[in-house]
């Protein structure tokens, strides 16, 4: 298990595509600092991170990264050669979770550095904008983003198709998450507030100023999402017999 995780980390961060995606993260965050209006001039570094997460920039770039990584397994036929050993799939998912955690953590570090530099160039000063919830916010968002990416990995590997995985990653963000949560509320007569437990809503709606219950809800959202995707992946693997 550890060898596979190490191999995926090495393969991911050795890849030129990963560093191109890091560059894209930096460019998009710097664009947010260009003074199109007076509001941009008052944004802090944390404001930039929050906007980058809430508008889906980091998430969708992370989806590209995990699909590219999953494509290595699809291309070389490794998935088809597992001969029904589901524990091997679980190890791949875990390895991809670790890679996603590293990718999003490094992305946020790059955003902090690049925005600090951009702010000094554009405004002669830089403001971090951190508060007592900053660490919890960043850690919680890294968890949410990483679990989302691991779900994309589950789908990509289960259907053994990178295009399908990529489409899933984008479409789930756009509307599938809301559709599934609404259907769960309707079918199981759950409280309407349950719609807040969608992982996309948790990613885009979480703010630093919220209380601990919101962070707890966000963690539950990631668990609900992963349970849905993991069950789908298992069922698909059994029914289609693609391994």
Automatic annotation (TrEMBL):
Organism superkingdom: Bacteria
Record's protein name: Uncharacterized protein
Transmembrane segments: 49-70, 91-123, 135-159, 166-185, 215-237
Keywords carried by this UniProt record: Membrane, Transmembrane, Transmembrane helix
Species name: Lachnotalea glycerini
